[in-house]
């Protein structure tokens, strides 16, 4: 169809026929026209740019020529792509049933019929099991029964009035077609398998013929591209024409589609549709009187036209039309020859020539009555002419303003529509994204596990404070990878990570869960309507878990969550926690937990779900240790603990708080940017206003006027005065006292309109610098918040790839989505041709280059089979961040968020990539991510042997302590030495069971033995270790066991009886299937032993190192030290329930600290007792004794590692001499030295494998030797550690050693922890040596060096402590060189 200008069809102008080769022409590219006249060219150009064009095909009006051509092209493209299965039904309905005269009414009829109804042969979308499939309608059946249209049908006019008897009715809503409702029809469809080629089909789907019957309309849908009213209007406008005022189908289409031969049942089913019938309006026949009057008027007009006026006779011309300008000019030349009256008429017409031209220009109607030469115009007529011209001019101006206003409104709407956010793949201005380097993971690490490890690392980093992680290296990414993949107990940190999580879970559960409810007590259960114990699916299982939790609590004396864990027991503690996960707490606690933890139920506990879903891993955990599991299983255990922690209120609130802080910071940055733009605008406006005032004052040129203006100006406000003072102080380099107040003013709304011209630019510059400082501070805060969240989620791009920033590593990773739905191809990305020189045929190549949708599953790089992004990649080249920001489309939902987040931390990202990542190779990147080399693999057999050897050593050591302290004796059928040798060599003591059977002690005499006879020879090594521990436990005296292993008979009778806990403990021990359970039961037994009972029996005197007669052996009630009354030179009032002098001193010091003062008199009275140990100390100190008298009284000050900032303050112990302090330190260390030199504690042997086991002071005697050294049979290690102790003592006694002996007093130096992150002192080194926390002498030297480095970092270079640190470091370095040959 043609393009119209106004209401006329546009035709291109033909080129001039007489053009010559050297003639200048004007070529119009838009219409391909050639003009030889510039005025014609310019007029056509103006015409093309005017908004008076329209497209007859699309129906759009008010367009420019280019817009009309584009609209016409789009409409034709749509018509060409209109599906045939819809074209035929629409034409049939229009031809057979419609009699509409307006296109909008016809479109509405077709839209109503098509809504929720589908024609035979139509291709639709069928929804089956939440999946959409392509299908074709095979047939339609009607099931609506008898249906008839509404009665009293009326013929409806186009203007909405109704007609029955010819009278008009009021306007009402236009009638619509009538058909049975959509639910009256059932469809038979055929699934189209052409689009399912990429999906895997099962055997059942292959046998399916794809036919679906009795399909409801609600499961069907058609594409909206062809069913909207706008699209239907284009199609119907193209296929219809007007005939007798009614829209009918074009005859050619009737022939092509054979509409006359088609039936209603060939396209649909059921009753025929009832479409509104439009009444034809016929003109009434005029009356005879009216006809005669009409003929009379016509005859008079014809007679008048044939009669010539006098003027026409004179001039010989007719006056049918007004004279043109040229005719008026000729009339003026002949005026001299005319009569006087005629001359006046022509002169008047000449004077009104300009008015006539304006009238024609502005379209004044009826200009003929003023432009004539028959008579002179009266003044009133001339005024009427001028008024008509003025009115027409104003009307034209008004119309022009309205047109411009409408044009601007449309432009704003188009701009707003263009700026409106949308899906990234629907943006028509996409730019190519930069390329990223693929991350080639090692063969032992899958991409999925890498993602899980990153998520796990994020959890530890995010909640490091709640997890009480003091050393970040413990939860580093490298440590997590080793924990999951390394099974070497010596190197794998899996036990440390599990212990951290279990300890955190116990802390939270103690606060929010409590113990289990008594399921037999209805008051303890709570509201039945809200009780999980009555759940039909999980209720019975939860009841069993409650009983199990109670049983374990009785057996171990603690809830399973509170059991201490180390590398030996962590497996069993984890097993018990998972086994009892989901127990039902008491009613009040459950209600509180339910409402504060997101409505979580017992059966929704992640541990509970894990046990049900991973029964194989859970069963395996009951028999082996975590070191024997595979990496996937170890990772699953770590993940289930993290999921459990995330259900607690504290963790949920912490995460929400940090996310809210992050969102608030983003909001502040956004508001600050908007504020900066507004301030820039205000500054420019104020500057323009001042420049305008300056120009006006120059034009006036009078100085007095300028002075008057200055005097009239109002005084500046307080803010302006303060800003001026601030600017002047900055320029002069003076100190600014009210800086914070000025900053608050500058970062608010600055009153630029009150400032002078020369001030505005300078103030704005300072404001800009403060703004940038504020922005940088907020961005740094955002980086810190991202660091607290661990894995920083930056956003997704148009391809749905996810971007992460890991500050702890650091690196920017890009992940290919695996679980995020990315949809299917619906329509290609609408790229604009003006953006590229490509043609329509090559648009798909351009879309692929820009990573846009092509609309085809075969070629689409986003949704199709050709999608080929690596699972993990990373930003590796310099400038990649800037390229990514330039490529991100700010109108797309995903890339808009990605660009905003990258902008907020752009400096950090650019610095990370440009300075670190871009310089690394692929191999170095793997090292950077701690993914190379591969973790060390350890034999499972070796793991079990080492663990078994460790348990044997623990049992032997416990037996030694029990025997030494006379707490009990092994219950076996042989002597002690034979039993120990058998356990140490073979781990089997079953041959020494009484009566060749194993019984549970303190049960009924009729109880059957657990093992007997041949059963003992068939037991595995775990059961044999359990029997050895049982023989040892059954030999302990009941009075030496604490509750809950024992209980008193009653208050009157102090006799101790065995408890049910002890019986359950024996049963649990004999049923052990894993070595970890034996270790846990061993710890439970060890903690239950009352070591203070009868502990003097078998102990040695700390003076003579002999046991001697127990009747003469006195024992301190606090420190477990024993002394013969004949050996001690101090007074011993009684053998039991007394304190040694050292303990008395320690207790008094502790009390004095609480009161805030030192009790010097009570310390002095015990000073003499330390002289007994001087000889022993002199031999122990060695080289350190030479410095005993080197400290002068003049240096008795309160020095510390960073105390030089408070020089001059005296010490709290200024009354004590250096000898007093030395003797106190000597007395404390001498007791430990004597105890460690006791040969009775060095008999235990160990194998090749040993590991440190930490115990709390409540569980073990704090003076006991460490397990690690007892297991080591290397005399060289002992010698090195003893030599290190001598070096520490010598350093303490050095003349410069006193400031470094004790920790820094944080009350005196509160800022110490802000400067020094890892404090260290000599007493701490000695403590770590006593508990064997060092493996090599090099580690001891590192702590020495840390002391001296801390001192230099905190104190000034010219301070006295700086010199002490240098002197003492040289002294210690010389000792290490001589003692170990180390190069330090």
Task: Give a written overview of the molecule.
Helices cover 47% and strands 7% of the residues. The strands form nine sheets. It has a five-stranded antiparallel beta sheet with strand order 11-10-7-6-12, with no helix packed on it. A five-stranded antiparallel beta sheet has the order 15-19-18-17-16. Helix 16 (494-512) packs parallel to helix 19 (570-579) and helix 34 (940-964) runs parallel beside helix 37 (1021-1034). The protein has 49 helices and 25 strands. The chain is elongated, with a radius of gyration of 50 Å. With 1384 residues, it is α+β, with helices and mostly antiparallel strands.
Major sheet: 5 strands, antiparallel
The class by helix and strand makeup works out as alpha+beta
Radius of gyration: 50 Å
**Oligomer category:** single chain
Q: Give the count of helical stretches.
A: 49
Could you tell me the mean pLDDT?
Answer: 76
Cα distance spanning the termini: 95 Å
Quote the beta fraction.
5-15%
**How are strands sequenced across the largest beta sheet?**
11-10-7-6-12
Question: Which word captures the global form?
Answer: elongated
Number of strands: 25
How much helix, percentage-wise, in residues?
40-55%
Low-confidence stretches: 152-173, 195-204, 280-285, 304-325, 706-712, 835-839, 1093-1098, 1152-1273
